[in-house]
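Issue: copy button drops trailing tokens. Both records pasted manually instead:
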Amino acid sequence: MLIFAGRRRCSFSFGKERESVDAFIILAIIIALGIFSKNAAVWIASGALIVFRLLPNEQLLNWTNQYAVKIGIAILTMGVLAPIALGKITIANLLDTVKSGAGILAIIIGIGVAYLGGKGTGLLAAQPQIVTGLMVGTIIGVAFFRGVPVGPLIAAGILALFANLLK
């Protein structure tokens, strides 16, 4: 532990803090995998969490744990809705969507993905250790199979669906 003027400045230490060391090791591995797979979101997020972990208290880390997924979903939703706000999608476009087979299929798939994302949120909240497996699988898929990271919520939703089928 680093000590400056008698005050704790860094939580990287040993003893009871074994979980802290484990967190650094796991996050460092995830950073390396994120860099290797060219997934900036993964290595930036992991790096930020290491910085948060180094702060003298865990307030920001706890806040991130509690609110980051909700805020992230809101930001993603804003990104999806931005073309509407910019006027690039009109009411006529929306009506054309429901008139075509591809548009109807897109709506059905969108409903399914939203459902799976909801199931994934529940699974990740109930079993947060699953995140590691999903991240490793996503990184392997991106790095070796030219995949695209679809997000841990949807992956967890698919996992929850299969897990329920196997019960």
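Record 2 (pasted manually too):
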Amino acid sequence: MATSKASLKVELPKPGEDKPRFSRVGIITAVGFGLGVLWPRLAGVHLVPSAPAEEVAGVSSAAEEAAPAGSGDPTPPAAAVAPAPTAEPATKPPPTDVSDRLEIGELQITSCRDAEGHRKNECGSLDLESVTKARIQSLVTCPAAEGAEGTLSLGLELDFKKNKVVDYVSGKSTTLPDSTANGLMECAKKEFGSATLEGLEHTYSQYTAFYLVKLKQPGEKAGADVTEASGHATVSWEVAIIRAEAKDGAIVARILRGTRVVVTGRKDDWYRVKYDAKGSEGWVFKTAIGM
């Protein structure tokens, strides 16, 4: 049996065909390079590490420092932000009026002496308001006056040769406890320590005079209504001062001990009286007419 053999064919390239195809290789290379450059950017992939944050901040700071001063105000640091305003304190209550805590009676002269020390029967009158009023009112701030309620009979020994108050005494009309009265007297000594009697009109060299100082609780107001009254009274002071209005009214007259008056009304510690033949009317402190 005969065996078939496949024929083997060998082809040799022609001289012009035995060369590499550079055009095809160039196209493939260009396409690959383009894809390599564009793909990371399109995909958002960073093939190299980013610069450290400190360096970026340093570059930013340098840029801000290099900017001109007029280019804009820098943003203030957080520490420079003003703190939130605090709530305003509640409105404080108004201070207590002096007249709401203290009432000063009329000056009562109990005795007087001449330069030789001889006592006189008639002492006349003295106008001490410019020296005494503010100083007595200041007793409201005395520690002993805190919470006190009652009357202090404040006695003053006036020496016009020395032009000052030389002694102090708490009179029999005082109704305050001894400790309170003593404390108030000490405060009075301090207040009157700088007082001078120089320039005040006077007849004799020495006088003993008293003020009734009434201490009240805050809010204890004097009554506003006048109570009608009738009757007669006799002036018991050396000189009784008549005022146009109770307590703080202008002085309209001074009447001497023994003068008879007609009582027509009352307002707290003051009495409205007719004090002369013309029927002139005014207000007098109660103790001046023995009330």
